[in-house]
Write a structure and sequence with these properties.
Elements: H1 32-40, H2 53-64, H3 70-76, H4 81-85, H5 92-102, E1 110-116, E2 119-125
Antiparallel strand pairs: 1-2
């Protein structure tokens, strides 16, 4: 005779009232993509808040080169480079302000400590709805 171990466990199912379990809800009545586009400030440019693909690529290059912005600032200080490239920022400080002002920040996480017996686990969590 083969016994099923699942018979020894009790199952409890609590049905969700209504038909909207798992549905995406918004406090403002608009979806997340529309909210993000409004925060960035441009409906028609896929490189917003930058004015062009080239400006976006230059900004990306500058931000991915590491914590030092000296080389980028020296490049931008060359006479005529900003005008020739048509950039909306003249140095790393202006680039950082543009990014901080125009793009949404990182999600807020909370740190929770869970104790199981004598073992402690730290778990980061975030509210997925906000």
């Amino acid at each position: 005779m083969i016994s099923d171990k699942s018979d020894s466990f009790l199952s409890f199912i609590v049905r969700f009232p209504g038909n909207s379990a798992g549905a995406v809800h918004s406090r403002q009545g608009i979806d997340q993509n529309t909210q993000y586009s409004a925060a960035v400030g441009s409906d028609n440019s896929r490189f917003a808040p930058f004015s062009s693909q080239m400006e976006w690529e230059i900004a990306r290059w500058a931000k991915l080169r590491g914590p030092s912005s000296t080389a980028f600032n020296e490049l931008m200080a060359i006479e005529g480079i900003v005008d020739t490239l048509g950039l909306s920022f003249k140095n790393s400080g202006e680039l950082n302000k543009l990014i901080d002002k125009s793009l949404p920040g990182r999600p807020a996480f909370k740190r929770h400590e869970v104790m199981v017996g004598v073992k402690s686990n730290t778990t980061p969590t975030k509210n997925k709805i906000t």
